[in-house]
Amino acid sequence: MRAMNAYSMYRQNSINVESPSKLIEMLYEGILRFLGQARRHIEDEDIEKKIYYINRTVDIFTELLNVLDYERGGEVAVYLTGLYTHQIKTLTQANMEDDVEKIDIVVKVTRGLLEAWREIHQEELR
Prior knowledge:
Elements: H1 2-17, H2 20-43, H3 47-66, H4 70-97, H5 100-120, H6 122-125
């Protein structure tokens, strides 16, 4: 119980310190990091760790879906909904088929998102 309170406090404090745009950047970076791990574990045939890292990545995409603002984001939010949903589907297939090529597709899409995000928010991120 005590560890959970400390974790909750840490999470709240770390979120309060960062700007929303920096948090999105960190989520994209987390996706890339976890996909690197998932890819490695597919190649090593470590099923348990592959599933763990793919699930972590899906969790991040799910969180990104949950924070989309359709009022302010309009068409971009709708586009990102489809894009994120497709990445989750691709990761599910990669998981079932042990397909590193599908992992690589999601990596490529996420790198593009991260680069675009950084370009759009470069002033905020400095």
